[in-house]
Amino acid sequence: MTDALLAITMLWIFVMIYTVAAAIDFGAGFWAMFYMKRKRNRATAMANRFLSPSWEVTNVFVVLIVVALYSFFPGATFTLGTVLLIPGSLVLLLLLVRSAFLVFAHSVEKYKALLTVTSGVTGLLIPAILVLVLPIAQGGFIEVADGLKRLDFGALLTSARTYAFSFLAVTSSLYLSALFLTDYANEAGEKEAYHIFRRNALFLGPVLMAAALSIVGAVRREAEWFYANLEANGILLILSLIFFVVGYGALFIPHGKDPSRLGRPRLAVISTAVQYLLASAAYGMAHLPYLVYPLVTLESGFTHPNTFRALFLSFIIGFLILTPGFVYFWKMFLKDTGYLKQE
Amino acid sequence: MDEILLTRALFGTTMAFHIIFATMGVALPLMILSAEILYLKTKDKDYAVMVKRWIKGFAILLAVAIPSGTIAGVQLSLLWPGYMKIIGEVVPLPFQIEIFAFFIEALFLSIYVYAADRLSSLMRIVSVSLVALGAAASAVLITNAHAFQNTPVGFRMVEGQIVDVDPWAAFFNPNFVVAASHVLVTAYMTGAFVLASVAAFKMLKAEPGSSHFIYYRKALMLGLIIGGLFSIFSAFTGHESAIHLHLYNPEKLAAAEGLFETTSHAPLKIGGWTDPERQEVKYAIEIPGLLSFLAGYSFDEVVRGLNDFPEEYWPPLFIRLLFNGMVGIGILLIMLSVIGFIWRHILKREVFPKWMLGCFVVSGPLAMLAIELGWLFACIGRQPWAIYRVLSTAEAATTAGHIAPLFVLFTGWYVVLAIITALVLYFYFKRHPLAEDIPIS
Ligand code: HDD
Ligand code: HEM
Ligand code: HEM
C-alpha cells in the first residue's frame, strides 16, 4: 500500500465514523424536537439523555476530518477550500446555532421550546448541505477560468445529484438515529420510547433505500466515470444491501427476554453499521484515483513524505492514549444503567 | 474595501469572537480545580457551591467556544487556502495533536458535568484536571501554529516549491515556547479576573457581613490571588516575547516602539502617537536607554529602526497603540491585585471601599481587552506577511469572492449569539440565585 493510499484510507475511516456518529447526533436532535410537545412521552428525554454528553465528542470529528484533509492532502485543500467557501460557511453558521441552542435549551426553561426547535431544524439542514461535498468532488460543478476555480451554483442547484445526496443525508440521519435510539431505549428499559423509535425506523428503512437508489440513478446520468467505477465495485454494494436487509429484518425478530415485543435492536444497529461501512468502502474506492474530479488526484494532492510519517506516528500514539478515555466514556453514558434510567 | 481586507476582517472577527470564549474555556477549569482543592482541604461548603455555579457558567460558555472554534478551524482552510497549503505540508502537527487535546477535554468534560453524581471526589479532581490539561494543551498547540508564522523554520522554498521538510523542526520553532507561555498565562490571568469582577459586582449589592457577602469575598480573593500571580507571569512572558521580536521580527518591535533610526541606547517611549511624517512619537514619556536595556540587558544593545527596512515591509504604525494598551492593562492589573491583597490579608480589613470594588469590577473586562489587543497586535503587526518573509497575506487569501456578504452574515450572527449567551447566563442565574445554595443570613 502506498503512503497516499494509507492516508486516504485513514481519512475515509474518520469520515465513516463521523458520518454514523453525526447522523445519530443530528437525528436525535430532530427526535427531541419532534416529541417535545407530547407531555408524558419519554422519547424526548431519551434523545436528550444521549445528546447531552455526546454532541461535543462528535463535534471534534468535524475538526479531525478537516485537519486530516489538509495535513494529508494539502494539494486538495487549495481547490476544496476555494470552492467550498459558501456551502462551508453555511454549515458553520448552522453548526454554531445548533450547538449553542442545544445546550441553552437545558439552561433556560422559559424559551426551551424555541431553542429546541431551532437546534432540531438546523440539525437536519446541516447534513443536507454538508453532504454536497460528495457531488462537488465527483465533478461537474467547478468552473476554471483564468486559473481561478469557482463553484458553479447554477449547475449545483439544478442538478439531480444535489437533491439525491441531500435526501440521502437527511433520511440516513433519521433512520440511523431511530435505530440507535431503539437500542438505547431497550438498554434503559424504556418500553414506550422503544416502540416509538422502532416504529419510526420501520417507516424510514424503505425511504432510505429509495434515497440510495435515487443517487445511483442521478450519478448514472451525470457522472459517468463514477458510475462505471461503482459498477466495478458492485459486489460490495450488493453485500451492503444484504446487511441492510438483515438490519431491517432484525426489527421483526421477537425480543429475547420478552417475546411479546418485536425486534433485536442491537443486531439491527450493528448490521446497519456494517452496511454503511461497506457502502462507503465501495463509494470511496470508486472515487479513486481522484480526490476532486478531474482536478486533484491522490498523488498530486499528497503531503510531503516526512510530514506524513510524523503525522502517522502521532495519530497512532494519540489514539493509543485516548482509547481508555473513550472506553470510560462509553461505560459512563452508553452502558451505565444508573445514567440510562434516571428521571 | 478590497477582498483581501474583507477576508482579513472576516477571519479577525471570528478569532476575536472565539478568543473570548476560548480564554474562559482555558481558565475556568483551573479556577474550578482550585475551588475543588480548597473544598477538599478546608471542607468549607462555600467552595463546593462555587464549583457548582462555575461549572454551569462554564458549560454555557463552552457551547459557544466549541462551535466558534470549529468555525475558526474550518475558516482557516476556506479563507486562507494558500496559507493552509503550506501549513498542511510543513506544520500540521500542532493542529493534529490538538485534536487529541480536544478529545481529552470533550470526553472528561462530559464525564465531569453529566456524571458528577456518580464520581468519587478523587475521580472528580482527576476529571477536572484532565479537562484543564486538555484546554491548556489546545491553547498551547494552536499558538504553535501562530508562532510558526512569526518564525517559520523546518523547510526551504525553492522556486515556489516546498523542499526539505522537517515537521518537528517546524513544530519546535524558536517562537513556540515564548508565545505559548504568554498566551496560556494571560488566559489564566483573564479568567481569574473575570470571576473576580463578578464577585466584586455582587459584593457591591450584598449586605456587608452577610453569608452571601462572605461567599463572594472568598470568590473575589481567589480570583485576585490567582489573577495577580498570573499577571506577574504575563509581564515576564510578555517581556520575553518582546525580546523575541527584537531577535526575529525587528520591524515589528520598531513599529511597536515607534523607533525609526537604528541605535544603541534606544529610549523606551511610553504612550503617545507615532507620526510617520516627522519620524517621531508625539506626546510620549521617554526613558533614555531603557529599550536597549530591555531588549538585550545592556544599554549598548543596538535596536533596529524602521528605516532599515523598505517601507512596503513596515507593519501599520498604529500597532503601537495596541501594544501600549496591552502592556498598560497588564501593569495596572498587577497593581490592582497587590492593593486588594494588602487590604484584605495584611491590613485584615473585612470590607472593601466602594471605589476599590468598582476597580475590581472592571478588571475582568480590561483583561479581556488586553487579550484582544495582544492578538490584534501580533497579527496586524505581522503584515504584510501571513508567514514572515515566506508568504504574503495577499498570496494566502482565497480568490473565491463573495466575502462581503459572508462578513455581514457572520458578524451579525456573532452579535446575536453574544446577546443570547448573555441572556442565557442572566436567566439561568436569575432562576437559580445563590440563595438556593446558601441561605441568606
Ligand atoms: C493560527 C494562528 C492565528 C491565531 C491564533 C490568530 N490569528 Fe489572527 N490571523 C492569522 C492567524 C491567527 C492568519 C491566518 O495568519 C492571519 C490571516 C492573514 C495573516 O496575515 O494572518 C490573521 C489575521 C488576523 C487579522 C487581520 C490582520 C491584519 O489586519 O493585519 C486580525 C484582525 C486578526 N487576525 C485577529 C486575531 C485575533 C483577535 C486573534 C485572537 C483572538 C487572532 N487573530 C488569532
Ligand atoms: C486560529 C486559531 C484557532 C483555531 C483555528 C482554533 C480552533 C478551535 C476549534 C476547532 C475548537 C473546537 C474543538 C472542538 O470541537 O471541541 C476550538 C475550541 C477551543 N479553543 Fe480554539 N482555536 C484557535 C485559537 C485558540 C486560542 C488562541 C485559544 C486559547 C487561548 C483557544 C482555546 C480553545 C478552547 C479552550 C476551546 C474549547 C473547547 C475545546 O477544547 O474543546 N483557541 N478552537
Ligand atoms: C505586562 C506586560 C506585557 C508585555 C511586555 C507583553 C508583550 C507582548 C508582546 C511583545 C507580544 C507580541 C508577540 C508577537 O507578536 O510575537 C504579545 C502578544 C500577546 N499578548 Fe502580551 N504583553 C504584556 C501583557 C499582556 C497582558 C496583560 C495580556 C492579556 C491579559 C496579554 C496578551 C497577549 C496576547 C493574547 C498576545 C498574542 C499572542 C502572542 O503573540 O504571544 N499581554 N505580548
From TrEMBL, chain A:
Its membrane topology: Multi-pass membrane protein
Keyword line: Cell membrane, Membrane, Oxidoreductase, Transmembrane, Transmembrane helix
Localization, UniProt: Cell membrane
Membrane-spanning residues: 6-34, 55-73, 79-101, 113-142, 162-181, 201-220, 232-255, 267-290, 310-330
Taxonomy, superkingdom: Bacteria
Pfam family, one: Cyt_bd_oxida_II
Keyword check for Coiled coil: no
GO molecular function: oxidoreductase activity
Cellular component terms per the entry's GO annotation: plasma membrane
Chief localization: membrane
EC number: 1.10.3.-
Enzyme class: oxidoreductase
InterPro entries registered for this protein in UniProt: Cyt-d_oxidase_su2
Similarity-based family: Belongs to the cytochrome ubiquinol oxidase subunit 2 family.
Protein's name in the database: Cytochrome d ubiquinol oxidase subunit II
Organism: Caldalkalibacillus thermarum (strain TA2.A1)
From TrEMBL, chain B:
Coarse class of the protein's main subcellular location: membrane
Compartment annotation: Cell membrane
GO cellular component, one term: cytochrome complex
Cytoplasm is among the record's keywords: no
Example GO molecular function: oxidoreductase activity, acting on diphenols and related substances as donors, oxygen as acceptor
Membrane-spanning segments: 15-39, 60-83, 95-115, 122-142, 176-198, 219-238, 317-343, 355-378, 406-429
UniProt keyword terms in alphabetical order: Cell membrane, Electron transport, Heme, Iron, Membrane, Metal-binding, Transmembrane, Transmembrane helix, Transport
UniProt topology in membrane: Multi-pass membrane protein
Any one Pfam family match given in the protein's UniProt record, by short name: Cyt_bd_oxida_I
GO BP: any one term: aerobic electron transport chain
PANTHER family: CYTOCHROME BD MENAQUINOL OXIDASE SUBUNIT I-RELATED (PTHR30365:SF14), CYTOCHROME D UBIQUINOL OXIDASE (PTHR30365)
Similarity section: Belongs to the cytochrome ubiquinol oxidase subunit 1 family.
Protein name: Cytochrome bd ubiquinol oxidase subunit I
Natural source organism: Caldalkalibacillus thermarum (strain TA2.A1)
